[in-house]
Structures are given as structure tokens and as C-alpha cells.
Amino acid sequence: MCQIEPGYDCLGGNSxxxxxxxxxxxxxxxxxxxxxxxxxxxxxxDPFDGCDATCQVETGFTCSEGTETSQDICTEICGDGLNLxxxxxxxxxxxxxxx
Length: 99
Hints:
Layout lengths: L7 E4 L8 E4 L37 E4 L8 E4 L23
Antiparallel strand pairs: 1-2, 3-4
């Protein structure tokens, strides 16, 4: 019996064309290789947490550590001038003594 494997979503199959399967976004599993350097999966489809609903890294964040068994961890970039979630201040650099 053919079944969809965990971590995948399959669409578009019919009697003349096979299904098209891709990594399921938002399940926290990174199946196969990252399709691009801006791909992430943090286990949800929430916006503004570093990884958006289409599994793209959001501006001001970096995401890593995702595997076939663990979700990506997204963290805010310090020194980029964007104060999004966790930093009390981000003046656009990482120089000490300037505020």
C-alpha cells in the first residue's frame, strides 16, 4: 500500500501523472537537504518568530540545527540594527561602549 511518508506532503497525482511530494512546512522536520540557504522549519507556521509560514528565514533572524528529528532554532541577529524580539537594544553594530 502506498502511503505518504512522515514529513512530506504530496499533491497533484492522477491516473496519468504521479504525485509531486515535498517537505512538509511547519512540522519541525528537515527532510533531505535544505532546498535553499533561506529555508527553515521551526515546527510551526507562526510569523515573526524567525521562520515564517512558508518555511523561509525572516529578516533579522538566523535559523539552524534542524534535522530529520529536530526543528530549527531561530535566533535574532545582534548588530543588524533591527530590534525584533529579544534584544533590549540593537544599534546596528556590535561595538561595546556606544550604548
